[in-house]
Amino acid sequence: MGDVSGLYRLRVARYLGLLGALLLAGAAYLGGSLPGSDLRGTPARVLATPTGPYCLAAWLVGTALMVAAWLLVGRTGPPSARWVLVTAVIWVLPLALAPPLSSRDVYAYACQGAVYLGGLDPYRVGPAALPCPWLGTMSYVWRNTPAPYGPLYLAISAGIVKVAAGHLWVVIALLRLVAVAGIGLTAVFLRRLARACGVDDARAAWLALASPVIGVNLISGAHNDGLMVGLCLAGLFLAVRRRPLASGALFGLAVAVKATAGVALPFAVLLVVRPERSPRRLAAATAWVAAGFVAAYGVIALATGLGVGWLSGLKYSGVTIQWTSVPTAVGIALGYVGRLFGATHLSLGLVVGARAVGMAVLAVALVAIWWRARGRGAREIVGYAAWALLAATLLAPVFHPWYWLLPIAVLAAAGFEARWPVVVTAAAAFLVLPDGYSLTRATRMPGSFAVLAGVIWFGWRYLARRRSLAEGSAQPDQIEPTERIPAG
């Protein structure tokens, strides 16, 4: 009887999610991230337009239904990875056929490709320098900033712009196909990596591939993160299989799409030599992985002539100030406190300072996490890689919902069972309106203080735990001889 009720709940969840996806597709037509759309701005401005109320209602109800369906599948228990993937395809299909939703980055990708195709260096100038024929479709903040993406993705974007011959909707469709290919690669190697770690691949597929973030942000928004994540997971899997050269090459391709994948690269070395931790074995594995990385990235850099110029473009990724980044939120909250004492001029400086502290903490955390991962088994090393990616995501100057796919995918492959990743995923689905407006801008004060309170709480718990461990280790020395357990 239980099996019958479980199958019924799964069927309800599948069609509930499909209904949510159809409503979100309708929201995309009513007021998504369309070229020239007038639905840009705060919820109040959206509601003032003729179709705005219908768009927001479809977005809110559709997102809620997709989240509820996803949670219902997780609570019931997915019967197989194949069932999850089929369900995910059903949920994604309406969004794949609708206009872009929740982000205007696809237009930035198109214009950056056009800049490279036009003979300019996309790492030195922004799309306005060409000027890009679709400049008016981009967010204002990115029109004069160089590209922060790797040479492989810029070459892909340029090739698509050339093939499309000036037709923007063809560019959007082809960039979305690249995103779909990336998610497909993620699906293949997420399952393989999970099985290699002794983890239920059905549960892993549910957590990472069936959430609304995939359809709304990765597919509809055509984000390049999907391709980067797929290559990164493939690199980790081949490291588990002890193929260091191929693993390094895949990481070279992943970094040539987006730099974040490089955080997981040192853990590939540990996977190759596990459970060894001797310096000689680590050095040999590092050499092989690095050789594959340099070869793959070097070929792309030489073929495109772009090299590593994207490093200078990374500094522009933090021009937006949102409380979803932990250090940025702390800086914003301290700025509000400063205003109470009349120090309004310190607000921006506090954000910059908090971000600098966050990057310093991240550098220390990455080294510490890697050090603790030495000599562990495959599942543990993958888990530590997930923690490193999570630290890089949370401590970076800016966070967007689609950034969440990489850490959650690796967490899923490692069999992470805690509830908070599910909560974060569900909350991330509601962060951005259909036209791309981030609700973090309208909730800056409560959001930043909530994050600051969380940082204080976490710090207090960490110190309390360290104190408890210290007291526990000192306890045997305080026991009187007569109280000791007798030998034998």
Protein architecture, described:
- Its main location: membrane.
- InterPro entries: MptA/B-like (IPR049829).
- It is a multi-pass membrane protein.
- Belongs to the MptA/B family.
- By secondary structure, this protein is mainly alpha-helical.
- 67% of the residues lie in helices and 0% in strands.
- Helix 6 packs antiparallel against helix 7.
- The termini are far apart.
Helix percent band: 55-70%
* Assembly of the depicted chains: single chain
Choose one word for the global shape. Answer: globular
Element order, helices and strands?
HHHHHHHHHHHHHHHHHHHH
Termini Cα gap? 54 Å
Low-confidence stretches: 475-488
Protein name: DUF2029 domain-containing protein
Subcellular location: Membrane
InterPro entries: MptA/B-like
Membrane topology: Multi-pass membrane protein
